[in-house]
Amino acid sequence: MQHVVIVGGGLGGLAAALRLRAAGVAVTLFEKNATLGGKMAQVVQHGFRFDTGPSLFTMPWVVEELLASVGRKLADELTIKPVDPTCRYQWPDGTRLDAWSDLPKLLKEIEHLEPADVAGFLGFMAFSAQIYQAAAEPFLLEPFQGLRTMLQPRLLRDVWKIAPLKTVDQAVRHYFKHPYLRQLFNRYATYNGSSPYRSPATFCIIPYVEIAQGGWYIDGGMYQLAATLGRIVGEMGVDIQLNSLVSEVIVTNKTATGVRLSDGRTINADYVIVNADAMYALDQLIPTTKAPNHELACSGFVLLLGVNRDYAQLQHHNIFFSGDYAAEFRAIFEHGVPAVDPTIYIAATCRSNPEHAPAGMLNLFVLVNAPVTGRVNWQREATAYRDLVVRRLEQHGLVGLNQTIISETMLTPADLASMTNAQRGSLYGPASHGLQAAFLRPANQPAGLHNLALVGGATHPGGGIPLVLLSGKAGARWAMQRLGVAEKPKLGTIF
C-alpha cells in the first residue's frame, strides 16, 4: 500500500486524507496541536463557548460532495441551517440594514436607504453572477496549474467577464449610489483579508456566493465541521498523530520522500501534502524553496467576551462600520498600524445555539481587521487597543459593555502567528492586491519539486471553508495521479 504523509490537520489536510483513504492509500497525518481543525477551533470557558475560526458557512455543496466521496451523507453527519438575517449592518449614525436571504426583504432594506440602488443591486448581482460563471470552474472547482490554466482558450475568451482591471471599489461605485451600500459591498474583499480599494473586481464573486447561494451555520458551532471530518478520518483508518510537530519535509533529488519531526523521527512517504500555512511551509519546512515576496493579507485582533446581559440589537452576525472606510484600510496596509476607528465584527452564536452562553447572557466573538506583525508591539499596545474597541462598541449602542464582561480572552496578530504558524499573523497568506497576487498565490505544486503539494487557505484557491476544502481535493487528486491510484467513483451526484 502506498503511503502519503499529511502535515497539518486543518480542513485542507482532513479533506485530502478522506479522499486518499477512500482510494485505498495509507495516510499518516501529523498535527502540531492537541486538536484537529487548524484555524477552525473553539474555546470553552466560564460557561461560554466560542468559535475562533470561520464563522459563516457558504457553498455547503462542497462539504456534501466531500462526504459523498467517502460514502457519507451531509444530513447524517451535520445539521446546517440558514442564518436570517445573514448579517446586521450598523453605522455610527444609528442606521441599520439587515441582509436577508429572502430577496424581497433585502430589496426593501436597500430601498429604505436609496430607492435607485434597488436597480443597482440587481445589476451588481448580474455582474457578480457573470464572474462566478466565468471563474468558478477553472479557478475554484478544478486544480489550478498556474499559467497553463490561465492560457486555456476559454479563459482567454472570457477574461473580460471577470473584470480584472477594475478594483472592487470601482465596480461597487458603478452600481451603488448610497455610501453605506458601497461600504457594505466593499466589505466582501475582507473575506480574504484584502482591501477593496486594491483588490480586483473579480472578488465581487464573493457577495454573489453568499447572497445567491446563502449563508449557513452549523448547529452546535462551526467547529463541528472540523470535529466531524476528524472523526470520519479516524474511522476510515488514517493514522492521526496529534502534538506532533513536523520540522522539515525531506527532499531528495527534487522529490519529497518523507518528513522529519521535531522529536527526531523520520517518516518515509511516497507523497507529502503540506497543510501548514503555505508561506511558512515554503520558508521553514521545505529546504529547497522560498516564499514569494507578496504583500500579506491582514491579520485580526480578537476578543472573546462573555457578558452577563443581553443586547437586543445584536443578531447572530453583526458588523459595526467605521466612519471612514478608506482611512481604515490605509492604516492597516499602508502604515501597518491598527485603525483608530475600526470596523468591528461580532458573532453571537448563542442566537442560534442558546446553550453557548448562560441564560440571559451573550457570547461575543469580536474581530477587528489588524495589520500583520511588524510595526506594532502588541505586548505593549494590546490592552489599550482592547479598550478602544470596547469603547467603540459602547458608542455603537452596547451601553455599559465594559462593566458586563465576566469572561475575556484577547488574541493579537502576534498570538495568531504563534498559534497557527501564519506568516506575521496573516490570516489568509498573500493579499489579493492586483491581478498577479489574486491569481498567482503560492502554487499548490511548488515548481521543480515532485511528490509534494501545498493545500490550505494561503495557497490556491484561497481562504474560507469551501475553498480550503477544494484545495484539499486538488492535493489528493495530484497525489493519486502521481501514485497511479484511481479515484473512487462518486457515489451519487449532488447537482
From TrEMBL:
Matching InterPro entries: Amino_oxidase, Carotenoid/retinoid_OxRdtase, FAD/NAD-bd_sf
Family to which this protein belongs: Belongs to the carotenoid/retinoid oxidoreductase family. CrtP subfamily.
Any matching Pfam family: Amino_oxidase
Catalytic activity: all-trans-4,4'-diaponeurosporene + 2 AH2 + 2 O2 = 4,4'-diaponeurosporenal + 2 A + 3 H2O
Record-annotated Amine oxidase domain positions: 11-477
Protein name as annotated: 4,4'-diaponeurosporene oxygenase
Domain of life of the native organism: Bacteria
Pathway membership: Carotenoid biosynthesis; staphyloxanthin biosynthesis; staphyloxanthin from farnesyl diphosphate: step 3/5
4Fe-4S recorded as keyword: no
Entry cofactors: FAD
Alphabetically ordered keywords of this record: Carotenoid biosynthesis, Oxidoreductase
Record keyword Oxidoreductase present: yes
